[in-house]
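Posting this for the archive.
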Amino acid sequence: MNGVYFTYGEEPWCKKMDIWENEIPISGKEAESLPRVAPLGDYNIRKELLKDI
């Protein structure tokens, strides 16, 4: 599951996080293109991951 990222934080402290919780600092513009990390159930996670397939 490489390339799956979520974002959190506000500019200038935006970060993207992969499913293994590795965090990478990003710009606010890049953060706008990613889904925000939120406590979701299993159904919501699968729905988000499958929407682009």
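The two ends are 13 Å apart (CA to CA). The first strand starts at residue 5 and ends at 8.
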